[in-house]
Specification:
25% strand, seven-stranded mixed β-sheet
Amino acid sequence: MSQALDEIKIGGLGASRKRVEDNRFIRGKGNYTDDITLPGMLHMEILRSPLAHARIVSIDASKAWDIPGVHLVLTGEMMATRNLAWMPTLSYDTQAVLATDKVRFQGQEVACVIADDPYIAKDACEAIEVEYEALPVVVNPEQAVAEGAPVIRDDKENQQDNVIFDWEVGDAAGTDRAFEQADVISKLKLHYPRSHPSPIECCGSIADFNRATSKLTVYMTTQAPHIIRAAVALVAELPEHMIRIISPDIGGGFGNKVPVYPGYVCSILASILLERPVKWIEDKTGNLISTGFARDIYLDGEMALRRDGKILAVRMHCDSDHGAFFSDAQPSKFKIGLLHSAFAAYDIPVAHLSDRGTYSNKAPGGVAYRCSFRVTEAMFFQERMMQAAADDLGMDQAEFRRMNFVRDDDFPHRTPFGFLTDSGQYAKCLDVGLKAVGYEDFRREQAEARKRGRLLGLGISTMTEPLGAGNSREYDILGIKMFDSADLKVHMTGKAIVRTGARGQGQGHETTWAQIVSHELGIPADDIVVEEGDTDTAPFGMGTYASRSTPVAGAAVAMVSRKIRAKARKLAAHLLEVSEEDVEWELGRFYIRSAPDRGVTIQECAMAAYSNMPDGMEPGLENTAYYDPPNLTWPFAVYIITVEVDPETGVWDVLKTVAVDDCGVRINPMIVEGQIMGGLTEAYAMANMQFITFDADGNCVGSNYMDYLLPTAWETPGFELHSEVVTPCPHHPIGAKGIGECAAVGGPAAFVNAVIDALSGMGVRNIDMPLLPDRVWEAITYHRDVSGAPPVRSDD
């Protein structure tokens, strides 16, 4: 009879274990960057440009220097004397730390003040006098490439225009031939607007340079401590082993806390010059107006179709607005991230995608806001095009998707853009979603309601997205391969500590990493501590973003656990006085194959590793694993939304939301559900209320929480979640695929599709997000598409 432990009871794989980190968070005992106070600490504030594009004529900081309590005023000119006026970005561009020649977006950093407290520093910033000479402004790609457009990056040698890159992928000639054979060509143009991750905690840092030891310690709100350490070593020209980056508790990241920001660099230089700790904590306006945006891509899409509904080819051209500096945090090989992951769920013979990236007078964009490098845009474009194509064919939305899905027996499947998807049950997931929403009944109800003047709509979004970037053959950032790591130490009493190169900011790493170890070793999860975020103790890793946690770091935790188990097997053989080949494993226990009642626990093996190891064996029970994923993981999801639109006001209400997520093996089902609900909430916010844009002068319109609305429990609709379909990833150590971003990626299209479906027959193909009531009302009233692309009139 098996004596294996009950995995659910010990908190292993599949247990809905409460998040252990919440014990401190709900008690107000979290330790965030702004909670940290060091002896002799000074405070820094940043002066930002009020103009989007202007030449700096002069900067007079004399009045700021005269204010009591001011210790240092930094300007671009001073930074330049130390070769720190510019810094490299994660996309091989350069970005101004403090402006020298001119400002290139509203909110750009112009100067900073270090003082005894933040209030003195703020007052001193306001005392700095800057004379600007206004220049023409560019706020969209069309303006960027127009004849006579001002060159934004005239600081760059040989930069004659505002084009950053032209990039393409796929088979252009084959796509052209397929379009020649099409019965129907469906076309759609739209704009995915700028979105801001808007974490509840803004960016910040505390730099502490110790002259006696020549060591720099920086506490900061970063999702990627080791990458920041490498960047600081390059920018500040300090030896990497003398830099310690500590990322304490993080109040949300969503990709916003991956880049290197000028505030970090300025606080580090100030600490070096003053030899005192310097704290910089960004305010909400500064965060909204200047830190990494996401999205801001224009699509011109076409689909070649047979009359029976078969997709023959897809052609996509995009124009991406990257702001004043090309600072996307994405794999070096792919200039527009993984935008070409579009249509991976569909069996399409051939496709071609091109993208032109341009500079504009906006804050740098392109961060992976809860998505795996432009995958959110890819899936939004895909599912909006799918709805438009079905409408053009007069086909049912669900059946059009079903007939073009990759079949269950067609895996692994090569997409038209070259990705290799590994597994899935797409049609089954769709069936679950349609049954849950009551699809046929709703269609009948919709038709009856239309007769009475009520506008009901149903939107579908089905997608598979690539997570866990990625294998070292194709994926790197700044030349650093995108592996991840885990270090595991089992103490002699059988308790354990695991450290990873990831950095959680709400994903529940402290809970789920322990569950993976518990699954592999049988050590109760409560006996395992997880530590992350300190470059002096954690193994090198790429950090946490783009849904890399479970697919890469989680895999590393599983692999290091297996290394530990392999050594423990040798110890068990020694303790049981048999050969290693005679030893079998069940959860938490090794036993003799021929005598199952004779065995030793993992805890007994741990004690032996320090007190009774065989001759020739190195003492201890600890190891490190670096995991280089062989492929991306590909979770699949179906999101179905029903809405009612008020034809008199354009206000729309969500009636029902159904989510079917096949994310492979679920480590902690409760945390998975929380991730899906959070993602759907963000999807709803993007589609409905988060408005941030720019006027003709480059003013950031909506850079406040009265316009850029964050949904509360009052506005957020309810969600019905389904987990019946589980397709394990064939190459992941525990079969997991990842889930953190799926709903935020696939959800927006479902909401938009539902509203457009409600307006069917009115001549409306597209309304740009957010679908504000006035935009929906305009579409209904004038029977036309509504664009939200900048510039907007700021007096509207």
